[in-house]
Amino acid sequence: MTADGADTFQGAIFDVDGVLVDSPHEKAWRESLRELMEGDWSDIRDRSTWTPDGFTSRVYEEQLSGKPRMAGARAALEYFHVPDDEEEHRLLEYAERKQAMVIELIEAGDFTAYPDALRFIIAVKDAGLRVAAASSSKNADLFLRQIRLDTFAQDQGISSSTLRPGLTLLDYFDVDVSGRDFAHGKPDPEMFLTAAQELGVKPARAIVMEDAAAGVQAAKAGRMGAIGISRKDDAELLAAAGADIVVKTLDEVDMAALADGRLAIAAVR
């Protein structure tokens, strides 16, 4: 059952990067730091622990994923022990370079939408749930407005009364709280609680889709259901963060169980 023992879920809250889209954020964080370390910051490179191969996907998932821009920059510089003699200047320079790079990559179409996530969001909305986008990224809407959900559904042979011609993924959400300047970032539940409130749904009647441990922790801190999506072989991290279920794709979610207010993985046929 849902967290409050009620019969059904009423709202579904989606993180964007890593859940709905395979975004270039990880690439932008990695490459912008490499550019700085091999360029303007070359004089401090040997005083840090940074190496060209050291910024792995695991580092991104554990240290930066799900965090607002400045918090992500701080986490990366602290992880690589970048000297803090000009800390605020370095943070701002890194964050601004990353932002410029990620916008360039998005505008170049250097991202893809996850088909399983698009199928799932259509299915949950067809099931009567209201849906919200909730990402700490200020770039989230840039992705969402480029994804044509009507075209995707047509290509997939999906028929739904919730779809109309010209519909983008951004249009499909009932609520979008992405990119707002919340007082507290994940793993604090503030963003997800705000999304639930604006959906008109009690937190215990909402489920959150997340690919980052900090996001799962935020959902559970808000007393919401949490589906962890292990797209990068990080199932153990998501489970340890408290996810109710962990799946590799959202196609694995048991929709019949969800309709009954339970989170379960569908049996393999």
Model description:
This protein has 269 residues and is an alpha/beta fold. It folds into 2 domains: 11-22 and 111-259, Rossmann fold (3-Layer(aba) Sandwich); 25-107, DNA polymerase, domain 1 (Orthogonal Bundle). It has helices at residues 25-38, 57-64, 69-79, 87-107, 115-126, 140-144, 149-156, 169-172, 190-199, 213-221, 235-240, 255-259, and strands at residues 11-14, 21-22, 112-113, 130-133, 175-176, 206-210, 225-229, 245-247. The chain has a 6-stranded parallel beta sheet with strand order 5-4-1-6-7-8, with helices on both faces. A two-stranded antiparallel ribbon has the order 2-3. The mean pLDDT is 93.
Secondary structure layout plus pairing:
Layout (H helix, E strand, L loop, with lengths): L10 E4 L6 E2 L2 H14 L18 H8 L4 H11 L7 H21 L4 E2 L1 H12 L3 E4 L6 H5 L4 H8 L12 H4 L2 E2 L13 H10 L6 E5 L2 H9 L3 E5 L5 H6 L4 E3 L7 H5 L10
Parallel strand pairs: 1-4, 1-6, 4-5, 6-7, 7-8
Antiparallel strand pairs: 2-3
Helix pairs in contact: 1-4, 2-3, 3-4
Give the structure's gist in a few sentences.
By secondary structure, this protein is α/β, with parallel strands linked by helices.
Key features?
alpha/beta, globular, Rossmann fold, 12 helices, 42% helix, 269 residues, DNA polymerase, domain 1
Characterize the biggest β-sheet: 6 strands, parallel
Number of strands: 8
The total tally of domains equals 2
Q: Percent range for helical residues?
A: 40-55%
| Proportion of residues in extended strands | 5-15%
Mean pLDDT: 93
The chain-level structural class is alpha/beta
Which CATH architecture of the largest domain? Answer: 3-Layer(aba) Sandwich
Unreliable residue stretches = none
User: Strands across the major sheet, in which order?
Assistant: 5-4-1-6-7-8
Tell me the CATH superfamily of the largest domain. Answer: HAD superfamily/HAD-like
The rough form would be described as: globular
Termini separation = 24 Å
Q: At the third CATH level, what is the topology name of the largest domain?
A: Rossmann fold
- Please report the first level of CATH classification, the CATH class of the largest domain: Alpha Beta
String of helices and strands: EEHHHHEHEHHHEHEHEHEH
Our Rg estimate from Cα atoms comes to 19 Å
Our count of helices gives 12
